[in-house]
Specification:
The first copy, chain A, is an all-alpha fold and 193 residues long. The first copy, chain A, has 9 helices and no strands. Chain A is elongated, with a radius of gyration of 19 Å. Chain A binds a DNA duplex (18 and 18 nucleotides) through α1 and α3.
DNA sequence: GTCTATACAGGGATAGAC
DNA sequence: GTCTATCCCTGTATAGAC
């Protein structure tokens, strides 16, 4: 209820703004992605953007949230076999959306400030992702060199750090390096190495 | 030659600005470290800062460069025995200078733009650090699971990624996790594990 | 609810006086 | 070498039109 009628336009506008924001970031880089520029793409004034999202930072946080919904990261991490390939597939996909990667990394830094709107987002997402990794990549048939939580932190850290390297030098083979790391730290029983 | 005389004051001012910039970043965070604020600490106007460094970004890049000189990272990585502890010591030290870590991470993201003044800095520093890691942490007495360059990239990525996690949640044990990673991927012959 | 118009404070950067 | 003055652009708050 109340989804149709007077709200319909607003919902559509929200989506439009989110997509335009990502578009501008992809084309002009994060730093030059001003509210003015995004608003022009949508065909409205900057104030209209702030009507839907309270601030620029909240807008960008919403872009990240939407990506998570859309990607639905978690399903890929259900079992150990699919986990490795699912994880690598996400990383491979990131290669196709540099704007999103730039946005993610930039906000991850800014969100260090507890007052930043994305602070809780990163805290929660980070923990959710880690327990998902810990659950999927824990192998019990060998003496584990690393406890699950440490393993998860390392994989997450390596993934984020590789994105930084890749942004500065796009020739960096993110999927290949992550595959090597995972296969070394948490070799799949099925692959027998 | 030409270091004394009319240049002397300028050199001193440069150092003073660099230190003040770091001071303000440490106290107020990167985002709130405006040229105005830094200039006030030094006792000059923002325009004076721009006289020495061409732009805000160049100023902050210079801060990072100075840190590298001062730290002199490389000496610690001369041999395999000292490498591990030297590396961990740097990470432990970073825990004491959150402002510097924030600055480094922020610039690492912004420098993705090839036009950013810190772009080349990160490209060069990154490569130098990696070859240093590759040289130090390569163990020949066991079948190497990872080639030296991949190993170096992973250690560097994990280190940078952990800083991201640590900034958002300062309870993260960076040195402990990095130690676990290094001991797993490149166990020291002396320690025999 | 959706949005424009307007105004404002703050930022970095530039030109030119001293 | 340093300052003042100025400029333009940023994000944001408010008022009110539709």
């Amino acid at each position: 209820m109340a989804v149709r009628g007077s709200y319909a336009k607003g919902v559509a506008r929200r989506e439009e703004i989110l997509e335009s924001a990502l578009d501008v970031i992809g084309r002009k880089g994060y730093q030059n992605a001003s509210l003015k520029e995004i608003a022009e793409v949508v065909g409205v004034t900057p104030a209209a953007l702030l009507h839907y999202f309270g601030s620029k930072e909240e807008l960008f946080t919403a872009v990240l949230r939407k990506r998570d919904e859309h990607d639905g990261l978690d399903p890929a991490f259900l079992d150990a076999e699919g986990a490795r390939d699912g994880f690598l597939e996400v990383i491979r996909h990131n290669t196709q959306v540099p704007g999103l990667v730039a946005l993610f990394s930039r906000l991850a830094v800014d969100a260090a400030d507890p007052a930043h709107p994305a602070h809780d987002y990163f805290l929660e997402r980070s923990e959710r992702l880690r327990s998902s990794i810990a659950e999927s990549f824990t192998n019990d048939d060998q003496r584990p060199a690393l406890d699950p939580d440490t393993l998860a932190r390392i994989i997450q850290a390596a993934s984020d750090g590789l994105q930084l390297q890749w942004m500065i030098d796009p020739t960096v083979d993110m999927p290949g390096i992550m595959a090597a790391l995972i296969d070394t730290l948490a070799p799949s029983p099925a692959r027998g190495d």
